[in-house]
Structure formats: structure tokens, C-alpha cells
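lol ok so funny story. i was supposed to be doing the assay writeup but got distracted and ended up predicting the structure for this chain instead. priorities right. anyway since i did it might as well share w the group, maybe its usefull for someone
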Amino acid sequence: MTRIVVLGGDGVGPEVTAAAVRVLEAVSKRFKLGLEFEEALIGGIAYDKAGSPLPAATIDACKSSTGILLGAVGGPKWDTIEVSKRPEQGLLGIRKALGLFANLRPVTAIPELAAASPLKPEKLRGVDILVIRELTGGIYFGKRGRTASAAFDTCEYTVGEIERVCRVAAKLAMGRRRKITSVDKANVLDTSRLWRDVATRVFRDEFPELKVEHLLVDAAAMHLLSRPADFDVMVTENMFGDILTDEASMLAGSMGLLPSASLGDSGPGLYEPIHGSAPDIAGQGVANPCGTMLSAAMLLRHSCKAPEAAAAIEQAVGAALRAGARTRDIAGSGARDWLGTTAFTDVVLKNLPAG
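and the output, tada:
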């Protein structure tokens, strides 16, 4: 049995995960994968129903699964509750509980969607980037505090944390164009100086075949827009990776298009689109499910070891987009012929290979 836990979460999360499950079910039949699905609570809905953004039952279900498909968490409804119980703590908590320290975020520019990107089409040619974001350290997990007159958040990294994520990034780069860019803020931050020292050593001593580039995060943000096709694999710390991948989503045209995988040394991986819960469009049936479908493909590739089934989903999504199928976010200003979530999913299903 191959059991997939589905964490719909909040906002559009349940809508896009439902679309992705439809595709996974179809692929499971075609490739005889025997996928079974179990739903569990996370985020704001989990707080509402169970009093915690990450119930113990959800952690147990995830730990015993093959892989986890997540939608999104959060929304203004929960902005006023105490920080420790807010929906985002559920996401941070499940990453920590499963030891998911490496977040893989591929960014590919599709020529047919060039008009959806704010960049000129010539800047998008050949864009194929894989960003590896360290996921369980840094400022999001450091000591923090707040008084009436001040607040602090602590950024901490250990040598071991930096080594392991750099090794993941380097191994992936070896299977691509053998170029890696490490992003830090070594001119200002001690954590970044440690990051650069450790990254330099790991790449030099263990992966001498790689072409290595070090960039300060502000320069990296600029170069992502000025020369995006030059990048192959990028590796960086938690907060920098969060910001840079959201910026990089504009190369593809929409945050709704991009998937991600969060992996550890062992155990199930967590797969989710990089977009948020989009409460402004929740329940309207207009959310873009591409990022979640492509996250499901990553789940098949990394957790289920089913690369052919993963490729079938990726090809079907690509075929739908190349044929002109568009959700509202990528249809262009004033367009009226866009498809809702369900209708777009129908097009993807029609483009899957016959069983």
C-alpha cells in the first residue's frame, strides 16, 4: 500500500489539493501505483476543529505515510490569536517533526506563458532554475521575543545544518548543468559568514566538478531578474530562500504555477505549491492548481520512486498550457476565456497518457 496524506489546510488549499488528487488517482490507475489517500488537519482549520494548528493525530498520520500533499495554511481569520497557535505554526511544526531540512523549488519559464511574466520574453529564454532552501534553521526557528517597546528574532545556524543542505544541493547540481550558486549576506551577518565558509569547503572538497558562485542576497535578487537563465542550482538559508523563490515565481508568470518538495534524510517528504492560501479567492473555484499538480509529480518522483508517472503529470500540465488552457491568474488582463480550477483539471486529465 502506498498511502498519501492530504493536508488541504486553509483558503484555496482544499480546492487545489482536490484537483491534484484527481490527477494522482488517474495516474495511479494508469501506472498501477496503488495509491491510497487519507485526509488530515493542519493550519487554521485544525485550530478551529482541534485547538491546535498541528494536532498529534496529523503528525502520526504523516510519519506513517509514503508522502504528504499539502495545500496552504493561514488567513486573516486567525491573525489575532496568539502566535504559537497561528496556522503557520502548523507548517513550521510539521517540517520540524519530520526533519524536512531541504526545500526544492524548481522554476521553469514556459514560452507560451511569457506574456504572464513581467519580464521581457528574451529574458526568459532558457530559464530552468532549482532553488534549494534550508528549511529547519535560521531566523524562523531561532529564539524570539517581544515587549511593548522592542522585539527580537534570532538567526542561528550550525555547521552540520549548512553541510547537509549544501550536499543535497550539490548532488542535484551534479545531475544538471553542474553549476551552483550559494546565496548569503556574508558582508554583514556572522551566520552568513559561517554559511559561506562551510559551503566553500563542502563544494571544494566533495564536489570539485562543480562550478561554484557565491552571491550576496541583494545581488542575487537583482540577478534573478537581470540574468535568470544563467542560474542552474541555487542554495541558501531559510528566509532568503523564502523571499527569493517568491520573486523567482514571476519568471514563470504566477506563484500558482510552481511546486515544491521538502525532504529529509529519510521518511516521507512534504509536497506543496509555493503559493499561499489566497483567502480573497477561496471558495470561488478559480485557483490555479498547476503548482499543486506539479508538487504531486514531485511526490511521485521522490517519495514513490515512480518517475514515469511523475513525468506523465508534468507532460500533461505542460500540454494543457501549451494548448492554451489558462486559469484566471495567467490568462492576462481582461481575458474572459479562462478556466476555473475544475475545468482546468479536466483538460490536464485529458492530456494524461492512455492506460
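The two ends are 20 Å apart (CA to CA). DSSP finds twelve helices and twelve strands in the chain.
back to the writeup now i swear
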